[in-house]
Design brief:
The protein is α/β, with parallel strands linked by helices and 647 residues long. The strands form 8 sheets. The chain has an 8-stranded mixed beta sheet with strand order 12-11-8-6-7-14-15-23, sandwiched between helices. The chain has a 7-stranded mixed beta sheet with strand order 5-4-17-16-18-19-20, sandwiched between helices. It has a 4-stranded antiparallel beta sheet with strand order 21-22-24-25. Helix 4 (77-90) packs across helix 6 and helix 4 runs parallel beside helix 11. Bound molecules: adenosine-5'-triphosphate and magnesium ion. It comes from Naumannella halotolerans.
C-alpha cells in the first residue's frame, strides 16, 4: 500500500511564528552542536542540574545494555526540584496552581512545597523508610500526590505510583512486585462531581500484601474512612505536625528513582526502572526544548494523571526541576461542564497545554462552540502525547484551541524512554499535521527494516534508537532478562521501540502504531493508525480503532470499530458502506475494512490508548484478555452487548 497516503497533499504545513523562532530555546545550531559530539552535548545539559558532586563521566556503556549516566556524580533529586529554587530567591513563585474538581483552588509556592516535602520526608523517616526502600503511592490528583513523589525522591526511596482509578488487584500486583512496605493514599478524590473513595481499595489490597507496615492517608473528601489501628496514619495528624526542616542527602547518580508500570496496551505491564541523574537531566532538558519553556513567564499544564509516565516526567519532575509554574487539575474535563479545561486555561492564563489526542477528539465531538466561550489567547504552544495525532485532530486543536497560530508539538516517547525522543521543536520546525518529525538534538533514531538495515526517505519500517540517552530505563524491576529480550534482542546494539515508523520525502518521521498492530492483508503491510486516520476524517466519525483479525483467505482482515459524532445520530442504514467507500477513496481499495462496527465506547488505558488487543479478541470471537489497566472495565461488556455490525 501507498504509505504516503496520510500525507495528504492538501493538508497545510505551519512554519513557526516569527517571534517564537526569534526567541527560541532550540535552534538549528542546537542540532548542529549535538551532532558534533553528542556526549559533550549531554555533559552540557547536565549543567541544568545542581550536583553535590559534579560528574566527570558522561556515559558508561561498558556493560551494555545496562547503561550508567553521569555515574560518578552525586545529587539529590528533591533538592533540585524545590530547595534550590528557594535558595535562588524564587520561594514565592507558584509551583502549582491546584484546581480541585469541585472548584476549590490553592496556589502552592516553591517555599511551601519545600516545607511540605520536608515534613513528609521526616514522617517517612520516622516510619523507618531508608534509601532504596520502595513506597507505593495511590492517590487522586491533589498536591499531596506531588509532595509524596518528591518526598520519596528526597530520601532516595523509589516511588511506585499506581493510578488511582485502578482496582485493588492492580495495586496488589504492583505493591508485591516491588516489595513496597509503605503506602501513601487518600480517603478519596472527586470524580465526576462526586467523592470517590480510594482507601477501601487499599484495605482490600493489603489483605494480600502482608509486608506493608504503614499507610499514610491524606484527607481530601472527608468521607467516612476506616483506619486500621497501628497501621494507618492520617496525614493531618502525622505528617502536618512534622518539622519543616529536612536536610537532603546526596545519592549517586544511578540511585533508583522510581518504578512505573507501562500502560499494558500490548500485554502485561512492565515495571520500568528509572534512576536519578540521567532522568533528571533528560526530562529537564526536553521540557525546556520541546515546550520552549520560559520559566519566568510560562504557565504550563500537563493535563495527564500522575499515574502514567507523562504525569511523572512532565507534570512533576521536569516542571519542578525547571522552576516552572504549572497547573494541577484533579478532575474530569466535563465536570461540572464541558468547558472546564478552557475555563482553567482562561483563569490561570495557561501558555502551554500538553494532553493526549484522545482528549482532543473528545473535545471535537463536543463541538468548537464550547472553547469559543473562553479566552484562550494566552496559549502559545500545544503539545500532544500518547499516540499518533491524526491530522484532523491536529488541525482542530491548532485552530480552535491554538487560535490558528500556535505550534503543535507531537511528542513521541515511552515509559521506557523517560523523556521525549522525537518531536518538532516549536521554534524551528515547519509543523506537519500527523508527523512527529525529527529526533531531539542529542537523540539518535533510525527507521530500519526487519534485518536492521537503515532505511531512507520515503521508506517505512521499525523505529530504533541507535544510541543510549540519559533518561532511558535502566532495566525492568527484578527482570533483567525481560529487559534484554524486549528491547535489545531484536537488533544488535539498537533499542527496539516496538513502533512502526516511516520517513517521508523530506526525511521527517511519522509514527505508524505498534509493530504488533501492523496488519498483513493479502501480503500488504498496513498500519492501523493510517486507516484510523482515514476513518476519522469522515465527518460522521468521532473515533476509530482498527485491528487485524485472522482471516482464512487474506491472512488478516481489517476490522474497524467506530464511534460516531453526536450530531451524526446513528449514522443511517448505510453508514457502514459509506465508511468503507470513504476509506477506499482515501487510501485505496486494499485498505477497505472488511467489517465496521459502530460502538459507543472504545477500550482505553488510563493514558487514553486504545487497547487493540482486546478488540482483536472481540473480532476473533475469543474470551477477552487482561483488562486490569482499562480505564473503565465495563467498556468491554458495553461493546459486546451493543454491537451494530456489518460487512
Ligand atoms: P505496554 O508497553 O505495556 O504495551 P504502552 O506501550 O501503551 O504499554 P506507554 O509507555 O504508556 O505504554 O506508551 C508508549 C507508546 O505510546 C509508544 O511506544 C507509542 O506506541 C505510543 N506513543 C506515545 N506517544 C506517541 C506519539 N506522539 N506518536 C505515536 N505514538 C506514540
Ligand atoms: Mg510499550
Amino acid at each position: 500500500m501507498n504509505q504516503a497516503a496520510r500525507e495528504d497533499l492538501t493538508t497545510p504545513t505551519f512554519p513557526p511564528p516569527e517571534e517564537l523562532a526569534r526567541n527560541a530555546n532550540v535552534t538549528e545550531a542546537t542540532y548542529a552542536q549535538a551532532e558534533v559530539d553528542d556526549l559533550a552535548f549531554w555533559a552540557e545539559q547536565a549543567k541544568r542540574i545542581s550536583w553535590s558532586k559534579e560528574p566527570t563521566e558522561v556515559l558508561d556503556w561498558s556493560n551494555a545494555p545496562f547503561a550508567k549516566w553521569f555515574a560518578d556524580g552525586e545529587l539529590n533529586a528533591a533538592y533540585n526540584m524545590v530547595d534550590r529554587h528557594v535558595e535562588a530567591g524564587h520561594g514565592d513563585r507558584v509551583a502549582f496552581h491546584f484546581e480541585g474538581e469541585p472548584g476549590d483552588a490553592r496556589a502552592i509556592t516553591y517555599a511551601e512545597l519545600k516545607d511540605e516535602v520536608s515534613q513528609l520526608a521526616n514522617a517517612l523517616v520516622e516510619l523507618g523508610v531508608q534509601a532504596g526502600d520502595r513506597v507505593a503511592i495511590y492517590m487522586p490528583m491533589i498536591p499531596e500526590a506531588v509532595i509524596a513523589m518528591v518526598a520519596c525522591a528526597r530520601l532516595g526511596a523509589p516511588h511506585v505510583v499506581v493510578f488511582g482509578g485502578f482496582s485493588a488487584d492492580a495495586l496488589v500486583n504492583r505493591i508485591n512486585d516491588c516489595g513496597c512496605e509503605i503506602v501513601i493514599t487518600a480517603d478519596g478524590g472527586y470524580r465526576r462531581g462526586k467523592p470517590s473513595a480510594l482507601k477501601p481499595a487499599v484495605d482490600k489490597a493489603l489483605l494480600q500484601c502482608p509486608q506493608v507496615r504503614n499507610v499514610i492517608v491524606a484527607k481530601r473528601t472527608g468521607q467516612d474512612t476506616e483506619m486500621v489501628q497501628g497501621r494507618d496514619l492520617w496525614w493531618d495528624d502525622f505528617v502536618a505536625t512534622q518539622s519543616t526542616e529536612h536536610t537532603p542527602e546526596s545519592f549517586p547518580a544511578e540511585q533508583p528513582l522510581y518504578v512505573m508500570y507501562s500502560s499494558g496496551s500490548t500485554g502485561k505491564p512492565k515495571g520500568i526502572l528509572h534512576t536519578t541523574g540521567g532522568y533528571l537531566v533528560g526530562t529537564a532538558y526536553t521540557h525546556w526544548a520541546t515546550f520552549d519553556l520560559k520559566p519566568e513567564t510560562d504557565v504550563f499544564w500537563t493535563a495527564a494523571d500522575i499515574g502514567w509516565v507523562t504525569g511523572h516526567s512532565y507534570l512533576v519532575y521536569a516542571p519542578l526541576l525547571n522552576g516552572a509554574t504549572s497547573v494541577l487539575y484533579e478532575g474530569t474535563p466535563d465536570t461540572p461542564h464541558k468547558g472546564r479545561w478552557w475555563e482553567i486555561i482562561d483563569k490561570y492564563r495557561v501558555t502551554i497545554l500538553y494532553c493526549a489526542p484522545t482528549a482532543i477528539r473528545t473535545f471535537m465531538k463536543w463541538g468548537s462552540e464550547i472553547p469559543e466561550r473562553y479566552d484562550l489567547s494566552s496559549l502559545r504552544i500545544l503539545g500532544s502525547v500518547g499516540e499518533p495525532i491524526n491530522p484532523e485532530a491536529y488541525l482542530w486543536y491548532r485552530k480552535h484551541i491554538g487560535h490558528d497560530d500556535t505550534p503543535v508539538v507531537d511528542t513521541w516517547w515511552q515509559t521506557e524512554t523517560g523523556m521525549h525522543l522525537i518531536s518538532p521543536m516549536p521554534g524551528v520546525a515547519t509543523g506537519k499535521p500527523g508527523a512527529a518529525m525529527r529526533a531531539l538534538p542529542g537523540v539518535s533514531v533510525e527507521v530500519v527494516d526487519d534485518e536492521g538495515k537503515v532505511l531512507g526517505k520515503g521508506e517505512s519500517g521499525l523505529l530504533v534508537l541507535t544510541k543510549p540517552w540519559p533518561a532511558m530505563l535502566r532495566s525492568l524491576w527484578n527482570d533483567d532478562q525481560r529487559y534484554i529480550d524486549t528491547y535489545w534482542s531484536r537488533f544488535d546494539n539498537m533499542y527496539f521501540a516496538g513502533d512502526g515508523a516511516k520517513r517521508d520525502a523530506d526525511g521527517d518521521i511519522w509514527l505508524l502504531g505498534r509493530v504488533d498492530d501492523v496488519m498483513n492483508v493479502s501480503g500488504h503491510r498496513m498500519s492501523t493508525a493510517e486507516i484510523e486516520s482515514a476513518l476519522v476524517s469522515h465527518p460522521k466519525v468521532a473515533e476509530a480503532a482498527v485491528v487485524g483479525a485472522t482471516d482464512e483467505t487474506t491472512g488478516q482482515a481489517i476490522v474497524a470499530f467506530v464511534i460516531l459524532r453526536s450530531d451524526a445520530g446513528d449514522g443511517g442504514d448505510d453508514i457502514v458502506n459509506e465508511l468503507r467507500t470513504h476509506v477506499a477513496n482515501e487510501i485505496g481499495a486494499i485498505a477497505k475494512p472488511k467489517s465496521i462496527m459502530v460502538v459507543s465506547e472504545l477500550p482505553k488505558t488510563r493514558s487514553g490508548k486504545i487497547m487493540r488487543r482486546l478488540l482483536r479478541d472481540i473480532a476473533e470471537d475469543r474470551e477477552v484478555g487482561d483488562v486490569t489497566t482499562l480505564q473503565d472495565s465495563s467498556v468491554m461488556d458495553q461493546i459486546k452487548s451493543g454491537l451494530k455490525g456489518g460487512s
